[in-house]
Amino acid sequence: MMLWTVFIMPAFAVSKRLFLSLFLWLFIQTSANATVFSVNNPVVHPIGNAYVLTAQINYPLTPRVIEALQNGVPITFLQEFRLIDAMPILGSFWQWETTLWESTLSYELRYHALSEQYIVESLDTHEQQNFPSLSGALKALGDINALSLPPEYTEDTENLILEIRSGLDLNALPTPMRPGALISDKWQLTSPWVQAVWL
Amino acid sequence: MGSSSMAISLIKRLSSGTAPYFSLAFLLLVLAYLLSAATQDSSRLNDLFLVIFGIGVACLLLLVGILARSLFRLYRDFKKHEAGSRLTVRLVSLFVLLILVATSIVYGFSIHFLHRGINSWFDVKVEQALNDSLELSRTAFGIRMRTLLRQTRMMAGVLSELPDSELSHSLRDLTQLSGALELSIWARDGQPIASSIESPTIMVPNRPNDTIMHQLLQGEDYIGMDPSENDKLQLRAAVRIPQKSVLAEERILNVLFPINDHLSELGKTVQDAYSDYKELSYLRKPLITVFTLTLSLIVFLTILVSIWFAIWISRRIVEPLQELAQGTQAVASGNYNMQLTASGHDEIGFLVRSFNQMTQRLTHARNASQRSHRLLEQQTSYLTTVLGSLSSGVVTVDKRLYLHTANNASSKILGVKLQQRLESPLSKLAEINKNMKTFCEMIERCAVKGIAWEQQVELQKQNGNQTLICHGTELPNNSGWVIVFEDITTLLQAQRNAAWGEVARRLAHEIKNPLTPIQLSAERLQRKYAAIVPEEQVEVVDKLTNTIIQQVEAMKEMVNEFSEYARTPALQLQSYDIGQLIREVLAMYQSNPNHQFTLLNSPESVAVKIDVNRFRQVMHNLLKNAIEACEDAQLPVDIVISYHPLTHQQRRWLEISVRDYGPGIPFSIIDKLFEPYATTKHKGTGLGLAIVKKMIEEHGGDVWAENLDPEGTSIIIRLPLEESPS
Asked: In this structure, which of A180, B132, B135, B370 has its CB flanked by the most CB atoms within 10 Å?
């Protein structure tokens, strides 16, 4: 038993130090690399009996992602929406939250070398748009204009919260790239959840 | 503290025994299932990737743990110098060395071929050709695009001249004339103004996107390829329609031209090939990394498994040897029951079986020796019991004349506890007392004589002489002597008594017959010749005849006593209170005031089976004897009689003692006191005590005399008592 302890203790100490430094390194990495997607001005408007969402998502791509894109690797963007019913139990300190509705829109951005066009294709509707510049494509991609919310949940909007976030679907990358992308912060660009303003 | 110790115990339990192996097997099964699921449907790989990765890492960690445990045990055994650990370590080291060398070589070559293989997919020439073909395609399309742009500008010029009402009509005409797919006019803010679409299925015109609008508003016309949704290529031209007046709003003409199918197909092929090559080329580095990682992981796993297997196989090989070593140690320390589990049919198995046979035979041999030892012990104890229950004394002495064995009877006969003095020399035993000296000297004397001898020894005891007859026989192998001796004092006594009885009977018979005629003749002599003899002779005759008559009378009395002694009528036994009997006898002696008798009563009345008349005779004889002894010595007659029951040699006895304070018995006759004519008295036949002894012996009892200190005699009678029914 003694021998076991003696044997294991330095290992514990070493691994503890190692983990600490690893976490510290990751923290510094993530804080230094502040280029993540951001959701701006999400607003829910009433139109007739229904509600629609408008928002702008800023997609600042890292050079690593742009390089992959220009080398013919399609990049998949995910836009996630969720409608939450937040029932206040202790005022604003503690709320009982129920997710009423969730939706994900997937878009594929790829470069068409022959036409020198950036193609944005909705993977849900397979509609596609072509853009001669990447910035134009990203701007169009990030422009959420009048996304209608399911009317069955929006009859009473008092306690409703709509949250939006966007990120890259790393699992859609080609297999050889995936392990690298999954552990690299150059690919971890998902924005935090942002609550929309109800008008 | 508690939770941490619990956690440690949980870890210990999980890491001990076969739990890790089962966990590993389970994880590998799960991994295999997931991998097969992922390979069958590549889209599932995306979802399962992290799970598979996690399980793989868990398997690896578990394997590392198992290996670490095995290595630690090996190290611990080695440290403790456990049997077989050195050989195991040596084998494991050899195996590990082999594994490392082999896998390192394979790994090195694999990595090299992997890099070369993947890099050989890519070729500068191929890349250049692809780039050139792309450029060629662009150039080919570029010529057409410039023509179409000019055409579009002309159309815009035409349209600028027309009023709004004719626009729609003109657009249709222009569409037909130019062979375009779609013509549309857009306001600056992106609102459609007019459009003409060739395909009747499309209702809404294709709006130029904001980038194009922005470019147009900057004053640059736009011409470009537009990949459509069905992978076909088309060309888009967008130009500003010249303003008729400064105040008129800016308008944009957007035209979509088709590209013929063949060109479109060619363009698509070039685009796909270029794109695939570019992607593959880009993925080369991560691909090599992933392959290298995978290969490294496999090699690492192989090494781990191989090392573990090396330890396992080494232990398997060494285990029977280790068992053999332990078995040999056990046999060396005397445990012959060791049986090893026979393993395999190889040389080690043969060795183990031979070992088992050897221990079996050893066990049989030991059991046989134990059996014979037990038999010997049984025989010895049998012999000891037999010797112990013998009434004859048996002693053995060895060649050096040291006492070797002695039975109970020998100690009793010699009156010395010989069993406590075994292994003592006879010369030392001779120092104990005079009798032992006589006995030991006799043995020493006879031991030199020869093979067998017989010798009679007289010993002196407190209650008389003791005669022993000793037989000596030499033990086999000249290893000593066994001496068997018996106390024949009683036998000699009985022989003497028998002889005396015979003498008495003959005397009575032979002498009694002539006595009566002698007496009658003497009386007739007196009667007849008293008258005829002279007067002065009458007195002499009377005196002489009287003498004859008196002496004959005395002789008769003597002969009667002899006949009484010789007579052996059947006993008439009856239960009688001994106290009462003694009191009755004593009553007859109370008349003389000079005689003093004391009877010490027993606390209980003791009934004894006796022939009352004869026992009275016994008491009379004893009292008479005691009184006469005291009177002869002119001492006061003071006799004390006592009786009490006692237990001797597990039997109940009644002991009666008659004590006087007379002169005691001279030592010269003490052993012959109870024989006829053993008397110091002037009168009497000397048969009194002989008759007492005879009668007591007829009752199954015993009688002996002891001299008291300072003076006096005690005659002690022991009569057997019937066991009480309780």
From this structure: A180
Nearest C-alpha of chain A: how many angstroms from B158?
A: 28
Mutual angle of helices B578-587 and B612-632, in 10-degree steps: 50
pLDDT tens readout for residues A77-122: 999 999 998 887 777 778 788 888 999 999 999 999 888 899 999 9
d(CA B379, CA B262): 124
Max alpha carbon distance in chain B (Å)? 240
pLDDT of residue A27: 52
Longest dimension (CA), chain A: 76
DSSP code string of B524-537: HHHHHHHHHS-HHH
Q: By CA distance, what is B274's nearest residue in A?
A: A113
Q: What angle do CA B353, B312, B354 make, to 5 degrees?
A: 5
List all residues 6 or more positions away from B76 whose beta carbon is below 8 Å from its beta carbon: A3
**What's the pLDDT at A18?**
57
Q: What is the secondary structure of B431-467 as a DSSP string? A: TS-HHHHHHHHHHHHHHTT-SEEEEEEEEEETTEEEE
Q: What is the CA radius of gyration of chain A?
A: 22
- The vertex-B137 CA angle with B132 and B142, nearest 5°, equals 120
Which one is the CATH code of B137-259: 2.40.37.20, 3.30.450.20, 1.20.58.760, 3.40.630.40?
3.30.450.20
Look at B227 and A115 and tell me if their CB atoms are within 8 Å.
yes
Per the confidence metrics, is the pTM higher than 0.80?
Answer: no
Residue A119 forms contact with B (CB below 8 Å): yes
Say yes or no to pLDDT of B322 above 60. Answer: yes
Tokens of residue B661, six digits: 């304070």
**Whether residue B152 has pLDDT greater than 50:** yes
DSSP secondary structure, B247-265, as one string: SSPPEEEEEEEE--HHHHH
B264 → chain A, closest CA residue? A114
- Indicate yes or no: CB of A179 within 8 angstroms of CB of B293: yes
Helix ranges restricted to H, A39-193: 63-70, 134-142, 178-183
What ipTM, to 2 d.p.? 0.75
d(CA B681, CA A158): 155
The SS3 of residue B645 is strand
Alpha-carbon gap: A4 to the closest alpha carbon of chain B (Å): 9
Tell which of B4, B13, B215, B279 to mutate to test the A interface (max A CBs under 10 Å): B279
CATH level 3 topology of B574-720: Heat Shock Protein 90 (3.30.565)
**B135: number of CA atoms within 13 Å, CB side?**
6
Which CATH topology does B390-487 take? Beta-Lactamase (3.30.450)
Residue of B4, B57, B226 best to disrupt the A interface, most CBs of A under 10 A:
B226
SS3 B477: helix
CB pairs under 8 A between A and B: 98
Reduce the DSSP state of residue B576 to 3 states and report it: strand
Q: CA dihedral defined by A113, A116, A117, A121, rounded to 10 degrees?
A: 0
B137-259 and B390-487 in the same fold: yes
